[in-house]
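Researcher: I'm preparing a figure for a lab meeting and need a structural model of a single chain. I don't have an experimental structure, so a prediction will have to do for now. The sequence is pasted below. Please return the structure as tokens so I can convert it later.
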Amino acid sequence: MKKGNSGVNMAIRLLLLREYLLANADKEHPKRRGEMEQYLESKGFPVEKKTIYRDLEVLQDYFYLQLEYDEHKKGYQYQSILKYYGGLGDTCVSSRRKSPLPSAR
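Model: Understood. Here is the structure written out token by token.
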């Protein structure tokens, strides 16, 4: 991790943690805090326990990542945004967005 640019480092760390959870944390495989710490450290971002908890709050509040803590398995699992909002995906026709900018002609 490079020193002196904490805002950029935090953004990269949040994106790394988000991608890790999306790819690995599901109902059958909840991820513990220690696993998240090890992952981030392997990517060059050593963190403390309190940093992980703060980052999880930021991911939920600002990145709309829906996480649940499984008391039995002692880990966090990712909840599909469609499940969280009650299956609103049934009303979606396409996942592709139209560009808000006019096409250049």
